[in-house]
Amino acid sequence: MAEISGNSRERRTPKASKEPNQQVRDDLIMGTNNSSIVSKRSVERLYFPDEAHFFRYFVKKPLRRSPLINRGYWLRMKAIDHVVRQFLDQQNEKRKVVINLGCGYDPLPWQCLSRYPASSENVMFIDVDYKDLMIRKRETVERTPELQSLFTNIRYPESGDILLSSDQYLQIGCDLRDLTHLDNVLKSTLDLSSSQVLLVAEVSITYMEAEHADNLIKWASGLPSARFCLLEQLLPDGIDHPFAQTMMAHFDKLKTPLKAVQKYPSTSAQSLRFESLGWTGTSVQNLWELWASPEFLSSADRKALDAIEPFDEWEEFALFGCHYILLVADNLVPSSNLLGICGKLRTGDPPATTTLSSSIVVAYSDNPQGHGCRRFAAGLPLKGSKRAQTRVGNFAGMGLKSRIDSYDVYDRADDQGAGLQYEPDRSSIHPSSRMCHTITDLGDAGALLVGGRTSPDNGLVDCWLYHKWVDTWERVDDAPHPLYRHQAVDLGCGYALISTGRINSRTMSHEYLVWSRHFGWVQCQLGSDQNPPDTYGATFSVSTEIPPDLSKPGCGILAGGMCEDGLLQPDIWEWELQDFATQHPILHFRISSDFARDMGSRLGLVRFGASVVNHQQRTYIVGGIAENNILKASDEICAFGFSSVPRMVTRFSNPFDNTVPRPLLIGTTAMSTGGSLLTMGGSAVCFSFGTFSNKGCYTIHPDKEHNDVAKKGLDPGIPPEVWSYMYTSAPQALSTTMNGIAAAGQVAPKLTLVPRIKIHDSNHFHKILQAGVPVIIEGSNIGPCTTDWTADYLKEKVGSEREVVVHQGTTTHLNFKTKNFTYTTKTFGDFIDSVEAGEKLYLRSLSSDNAKEIPANLDRDFSSLAADFQLPNELEYVTKSIHSSPFRISGPVIMWLHYDVMANILCQIRGQKRLVLFPPTDVMHLGFEPGSSSSSINVFEQLQDPSLCGTHPHEVILREGDILFLPSLWLHTAEPTSGMSVAVNVFFRDLQAGYAAGKDVYGNRDLQAYEKGRLDINKIIKSLDGLPGTARSFYLQRLVAEFQQKSFSP
């Protein structure tokens, strides 16, 4: 169904009958059809690999959308499919009719006929949309046999509004505002009195004026037997919610504003709308609530999605789901369970809570434009200008475009002039860029950073202590496994407790860990019969009311968090950790009975992704997402204390009034600054509508502190302190040793021998490929060539008079850059004799058909030798992916240091050869100029030179019959060690995509992304040409530093 980043549009009559402004608007809405179907095509390709694909016929150029958009569209498509299938499976003597209102290019009829052929028998599917668009859809059907094959008796009327008819399917071009005309067209083709009708409107009638949409809904309620399925946007917390702002601004910018959502912003308003327009029963849920419904999706269904693509955008997915509604109404059945989902409220709105309510004062400070915009970072305690005061940092996280390893520095507004130093992090080592990590302030012991991730499948194990007084990072014990989306609390005395989290996109950790400098990592034993399920992103806090004491247990609260099946863990648990200062800590859990059992406690504590911070004897929970519904402004910040009985959660009414911009409390960092709470950063991708980032920081003064100010006779409306952004501290760029420049005291690199192995099947070789490191394969059968290919045999089989082009060197070391060799044509017999005589000659065979256009191929170029050589069956992958197979014969020459972009195997047939290999990461140390795949360095002469101290050389000795697997981009050079060397080199494609377009005769043309990147660099440099010399140099150095920083990030 066509939509702007979603679905369809307001209907359109013939152009001549419309006012110009209306025509322009209808054209804008109609033109958005492609955006929706491209997203749905992305979902179809990934999520439905075993089904017939129908979006493919309407999408010329498929694109892979982001995981968030894919999962959001999958949920929308699943919701519509759920309602339609439920309708099709109903037992009814009447003929069923499914009318898709504003269908766009949506292939709902084909999907139903393909997925549910039995249930779709004798069902009429009707698509209704703009006539111009439906004509194009009809043309696609006409030229696509696969789309016609599911229909019988297809007809294409030459006139009228019925554009295609068949026994199963109708296409109607009609304006939905003209209900009389629509009614007449339907009645001319169907007996509605004997039909059961389902009308589907997926993000379509919301673009109509609300009056016209209401008329359509009312008309549909007058059909003899009808059901209406509506999926469109909501404003669950009003237009000022940041997601709602971004969504509405997106559609306004496209000049296609959402109309219905402004009049019917909530689930209850939509339900009352349908009841008032003649519908007997309604069921309604937002999509986030629907996601959690077991009758809609099982745990297995949700877990299966994680196998399709890595996903960790839960907060953004929940925001999307809370802003979309699925409503089903029926004009005969007075049921509130038309969705087939039990145990849910009719309106889907959250019930009232009975928690305590209080007030807070919030001060806001703008960040400089483009600064402070990071999410899923972690708070870092910093030294201040005075030793008694501290500053605050917000370390790493996701920046505007990528993960970053810097930190933003915040200070009190009245203290920013003292000791301000704009300087980089002075640590010689420091944590790399990451997100979803934790930093726990352990007091004088330092601040402990644990884990984090780059991508959802690349969790990190490294852990660090930051010592603020000396501004130094210290790497400490790695975690037992990668860990992110965990939580950590300070137990006192240098001990920290770390909760469960994620290891990768499909694996969660199962243990709670204690870290200390004394014991390192220690796993907690669980001492209870009943324990919470493994979760990540939970509300995890430690009591502040018990002074740190090694002899006393630590205690706290665990609530919420995401379970393995993508649902929030619903319970509130209390934990107690005994003997945490030993190597055998015992962790006990129990379901909390002290918290009041009302929705307020659940809403306050059962969250995912909230910032949890202890502040002045209370625990504050800031932001995140909750079950089923959006967190409204009055629920986003709450607090509780362990001393209150019964334990109640305090909510803060209207914390963000009209005096400060409302923040998006997703991915924010909250820290206690002593007298106040500080929230920094925070942003979210608002589905396909754009990204919302908080533009400043918020200083929060809870009511207790504020009342203290009032008691002192100060104006309670003025917070005692305001924090603001100061600057960003970035680590110094890493330096590299290039072109043999070494520092004093450096020693020669250590030589590593490449391992020798035997392989037994193709699966073993696949594992070698995946490992991506060189190996020598021995004991494999490569044919009789190893015994037959003597000099005389080669001359006989190839022909002594055949001419070949060879390299003739002036020195032993051939240098491709200086061209200290010539290309010489010799007869093959003369070449073999000269090599045996010790001349500096080297043959790398070329295609005998067209050397400039076609890669070398042993079977074709030396067909008389081909029967003697074979690749073993274990290398089946190489055979199927072969690019070229050059024949190599070498005298006493050293092949220049170079790399090949394609992976290859080198089969040594006669003689022995020594090679030195370097991993791709050494490229900056070995004299490779930009754009060149060759170096002038003679590695065999310089291998013991300290100038190569930063490299990691690997040595290979190839004997007859050996096969060297050489991964892509490994740098290598070679020399024979025993007379004439004869080999066959087989290049093969080990990447699915990315190779440069056009010819690549030698298999060493750089990947397309690099070639394009070099062109982009030239454009960048050229763009700076008009600047004065100082400015040009200044900005070029900044760009170089940025490239270096990002290249050294994981």
UniProtKB/TrEMBL annotation:
Feature: compositional bias, Basic and acidic residues: 8-28
PROSITE patterns linked: JMJC
Location of the JmjC domain: 843-1005
Top-level taxon of the source organism: Eukaryota
UniProt-annotated stretches for the region Disordered: 1-30
GO BP terms, alphabetized: tRNA methylation; wybutosine biosynthetic process
Keywords: Methyltransferase, S-adenosyl-L-methionine, Transferase, tRNA processing
Gene3D superfamilies associated with the record: 6.10.140.1470, Cupin, Kelch-type beta propeller, Vaccinia Virus protein VP39
Pathway the protein takes part in: tRNA modification; wybutosine-tRNA(Phe) biosynthesis
Catalytic activity: 7-[(3S)-(3-amino-3-methoxycarbonyl)propyl]wyosine(37) in tRNA(Phe) + S-adenosyl-L-methionine + CO2 = wybutosine(37) in tRNA(Phe) + S-adenosyl-L-homocysteine + 2 H(+); 7-[(3S)-3-amino-3-carboxypropyl]wyosine(37) in tRNA(Phe) + S-adenosyl-L-methionine = 7-[(3S)-(3-amino-3-methoxycarbonyl)propyl]wyosine(37) in tRNA(Phe) + S-adenosyl-L-homocysteine
SUPFAM superfamilies assigned to the protein according to its UniProt record, in alphabetical order: Clavaminate synthase-like, Galactose oxidase, central domain, S-adenosyl-L-methionine-dependent methyltransferases
UniProt enzyme class: transferase
Keyword Methyltransferase: yes
EC annotation from Swiss-Prot or TrEMBL: 2.1.1.290, 2.3.1.231
GO molecular function: tRNA methyltransferase activity
Role according to the record: Probable S-adenosyl-L-methionine-dependent methyltransferase that acts as a component of the wybutosine biosynthesis pathway. Wybutosine is a hyper modified guanosine with a tricyclic base found at the 3'-position adjacent to the anticodon of eukaryotic phenylalanine tRNA. May methylate the carboxyl group of leucine residues to form alpha-leucine ester residues.
Family of this protein: Belongs to the methyltransferase superfamily. LCMT family.
Matching PANTHER family: TRNA WYBUTOSINE-SYNTHESIZING PROTEIN 4
Protein name: tRNA wybutosine-synthesizing protein 4
